[in-house]
TrEMBL record:
InterPro entries: HTH-type_LysR_regulators, LysR_HTH_N, LysR_subst-bd, WH-like_DNA-bd_sf, WH_DNA-bd_sf. GO terms for cellular component: cytosol. Signal peptide: none annotated. This is LysR family transcriptional regulator. GO terms for molecular function: DNA binding; DNA-binding transcription factor activity.
Length: 300
């Protein structure tokens, strides 16, 4: 008894005809007839009888039909489960906040170039929600701000210290400045991203320290929109220097004193047993993206 025989049998039950079943299955009529005959010979029972030019199930055939339905459903479930496992083993779910995503796209592109068979799924959110997603096994890697991961279940490695700069367009009065204080920036209309919670908090905290209030007149969920608003001159905004320098029409200006942002990569300690995730972590270490320890087994 083979799965294809059961599928052919099931279709004949539905169509009450070998000819129509063959048409529906896009195979030859003799192939369907042979499958039914082989099943009847294997069990020594008749599964169908002819009535008014239609095939109807015998008593034994009716019992067999119920069992076949259950068997084929189970076979489909197993196939779906194995497909999901295969997909999980050849893909990596990476979570990034919008600002960090813009910073790390070159890294992800380089990884894809070196490992084209591994599919990257990008998930978005703020740092807090992505930490929770990692804890709940909804993502495999989180690239987030700060250094306060749950060390009991997660491994964390510092990635880089990125400078946050104030950006304006080329016609802005500040465009020739090399350094600005936050009281100077506070005179401008600003645009910020709503769901970059940690990035935004870092900037607001510095404003608080400088005892001045930012004029955030624009709020968006899209980094692209933020850059377009800065480019148009209707607002200034804060970006990572690396991101700003990719935009030729923007002028990045350092703050006095400079403002930096800590970024780290998180993963579940037991996930290094997954070869695909281990490949990604080894790639990140090899390219100096995450710091030692070199032996990832130490993070388990």
């Amino acid at each position: 008894m083979k799965l294809h025989q059961l599928r052919y049998f099931q279709e004949v039950c539905r169509q009450h005809s070998i000819t129509k079943a063959a048409e529906e299955l896009h195979i030859s009529q003799p192939a369907v007839s042979a499958a039914i005959r082989e099943l009847e010979e294997e069990f020594g029972l008749r599964l169908f009888k002819r009535s008014h030019k239609k095939l109807i199930l015998t008593t034994e055939g009716s019992y067999f039909s119920l069992e076949v339905e259950e068997l084929l459903q189970k076979a489909k479930q197993i196939a779906d489960d194995m497909t999901r496992l295969q997909k999980k083993n050849t893909s990596i779910r990476v979570g990034l906040p919008p600002m960090i995503e813009a910073l790390e796209i070159p890294l992800l592109a380089l990884f894809h170039k070196d490992h084209p068979d591994i599919r990257l799924e990008l998930h978005h959110g703020n740092s807090l929600s992505l930490r929770k997603a990692l804890q709940d096994d909804r993502i495999d890697i989180a690239i987030v701000s700060g250094q306060d991961g749950d060390q009991d279940t997660m491994a964390a490695r510092a990635m880089k210290r990125s400078e946050i700069v104030y950006c304006v367009n080329q016609s802005h009065p500040y465009a020739r400045e090399k350094v600005l204080s936050l009281p100077q920036v506070a005179q401008d209309d600003l645009v910020e991203i709503e769901n970059s919670q940690k990035f935004r908090e870092t900037i607001l905290e510095r404003f608080h320290q400088e005892r001045c209030t930012p004029r955030i007149q624009w709020s968006t969920t899209q980094l692209y929109t933020k850059i377009q608003l800065i480019r148009s001159g209707v607002a200034g905004g804060f970006l990572y220097r690396t991101v700003a320098e990719r935009e030729p029409e923007l002028v990045p200006i350092s703050l006095n004193p400079p403002l930096y942002y800590e970024i780290e990569m998180l993963w579940q300690k037991n996930s290094v047993e997954n070869e695909t995730i281990r490949t990604f972590l080894e790639f990140a270490r090899k390219h100096g993206v995450i710091k030692e320890p070199e032996n990832l087994e130490q993070t388990k």
